[in-house]
Specification:
The chain has 483 residues and is of the alpha+beta class. It has 17 helices and 15 strands. The strands form six sheets. A four-stranded antiparallel β-sheet has the order 3-6-12-11, with no helix packed on it. A three-stranded antiparallel β-sheet has the order 7-9-8.
């Protein structure tokens, strides 16, 4: 962990000194080898003053006046004698009570209607403890305790250039913000109970069911899109692990601890959300579950403080949820976060094509090519892309159809759809029938698994069943059976 001056830290390393002093993080630097993950199936104490404006939390008004934080920097050896460490064992219980006490101590303010709850001690969520009116601010989190990829970049970028270069070659630069958080979290993890974030880290789940946690056999049991997205998550973890080899101030012991690395990776990706290019992890806000029609929305003031407010009236006992992303395609949420959003109204139609410019112009996109679960409706983009593919054998008509689409000529498009309706209907039926057969085969494969060896099998089976029921609804509405 970096406490205070990173320049002082590097200077100490160059002098081969092992020091612990204010504004200097003294860490022994060790380099080592890493086995591929495929082989295995400030920040200091802060004094922050707050008061409640008028006795109420008010959205858009500085209801909480934040006084300047008094920071007394603590030096830390990388191998201290810790009284406690964060266990990543999946059986470790979540310590929510200590996290709540920590959050309150450092300025987190909650409305009386905000309540953390759990039925099994594993899945923790937020409910309304009393009726909440729309536009009510239910949670305030000061900027001092928010983990930010931009801040991590400012602290670390000068010292992890080789890792950045590696990721730029392998994974592009899209996920560098999460990598900065990954490194920052690893430093906090190594600090054990001397980390400012220890109580928060110890409150997090230890077990995940998303793509990065799956085995290659899991991917074989998923439809193409979900499998591809899940494999990307695991591949990204491998890239992060490889890039970590070049980061000297993370210990060899931690680099070899695959369970710890994967856990920290999961925390970085599942608990951070992007705002204006900055990926932020906001303690307590990260306890909100996902909802396709969320009850809560998040915003930040000019000082970076975070507020959660209700988007509608919420009766007592109802969940308080935020949106994790596009609700129309549960496969993305499944791969990244490891849950099935059964409230999602639609799913990608699973027509897997190479996205040429023309196809993208016609609407080929996972968030637009949709089958609707409850009604069996098919989005307009599906019909357009199917017809464009059918017209491949007649280039003149294909070009005319494409130009009509680009010009917004709905009359000409309607003419083509009417003339080729039997062909597009047959193509849709062939796709639906073929995919349903594939799903049955995938589900049979999953059903044969031992849940003790494959704990994610039930989730995979539920995902495949969700997709199957959606396809059956589409078939019932759009694919008439012969009498």
């Amino acid at each position: 962990r970096v406490f205070g001056s990173l320049a002082g830290f590097v200077k100490a390393r160059q002098n081969e000194d092992f020091i612990a002093a204010v504004d200097i993080a003294a860490m022994t630097l060790v380099s080592g080898q890493w086995e591929s993950p495929w082989c295995s199936t400030s920040i200091s104490k802060m004094s922050v003053g707050f008061f409640l404006w008028g006795g109420f939390l008010v959205r858009g008004i500085s209801g909480f006046q934040v006084q300047p934080a008094g920071i007394s920097v603590r030096a830390l050896s990388r191998t201290p004698n810790l009284a406690a460490v964060v266990s990543t064992d999946v059986e470790t219980p979540r310590d929510i009570a200590s996290m709540e006490e920590w959050a309150t101590t450092y300025g987190v303010q909650r409305d009386e209607g905000f309540q953390l709850t759990t039925e099994d001690g594993i899945d923790v969520n937020v409910i309304a403890a009393q009726d909440l009116a729309a536009e009510s601010t239910v949670l305030f989190v000061p900027s001092d305790i928010i983990l930010s990829s931009n801040q991590a970049y400012q602290e670390l970028s000068e010292y992890i250039a080789p890792a950045e270069e590696f990721l730029g070659r392998m994974d592009g630069t899209d996920h560098l913000p999460q990598f900065y958080l990954f490194i920052k979290l690893l430093m906090e993890y190594e600090a054990g109970d001397q980390s400012f974030y220890f109580s928060w880290l110890n409150s997090l789940p230890r077990s995940y069911y998303n793509g990065a946690s799956m085995t290659p056999f899991c991917y074989e049991c998923l439809p193409p899109l979900a499998a591809t997205l899940a494999m990307k998550e695991r591949t990204r973890f491998i890239y992060f692990s490889e890039a970590l080899k070049t980061v000297d101030f993370i210990s060899d012991q931690t680099k070899r601890d695959k369970d710890a690395l994967k856990w920290v990776f999961q925390v970085a990706f599942t608990r951070s959300f992007e705002t204006d290019g900055d990926w932020r992890i906001v303690p307590m806000v990260d306890m909100f579950n996902h909802g396709a029609e969320p009850e809560v929305q998040i915003y930040y003031d000019d000082e970076g403080n975070c507020y959660a407010y209700t988007t509608k009236d919420v009766p007592a006992g109802s969940p308080l949820r935020m949106s994790y992303g596009d609700p129309t395609n549960p496969s993305h949420l499944f791969a990244r976060y490891g849950f099935l959003d059964e409230t999602s109204p639609a799913t990608f139609c699973k027509i897997m094509l190479t996205p040429t410019k023309q196809l993208v112009d016609m609407g080929y996109d996972h968030s637009r090519m949709l089958f609707y679960k409850d009604t069996g409706d098919v989005s307009e983009e599906v019909w357009d892309v199917l017809l464009y593919q059918i017209l491949e054998s007649n280039k003149n008509e294909q070009r005319a159809f494409y130009e009509a689409h680009m010009a917004g000529d709905s009359e000409t498009k309607s003419y083509f759809h009417q003339n080729y309706f039997s062909e597009t209907s047959a193509a849709l039926q062939d796709h639906v029938d073929s995919f349903l057969r594939d799903l049955d085969e995938l589900s049979r494969k999953v059903s044969a698994l031992d849940i003790n060896d494959h704990p994610r099998a039930p989730l995979i089976l539920s995902h495949n069943e969700f997709v199957k029921q959606t396809f059956l609804a589409v078939k019932a509405l759009n694919c008439p059976q012969p009498v």
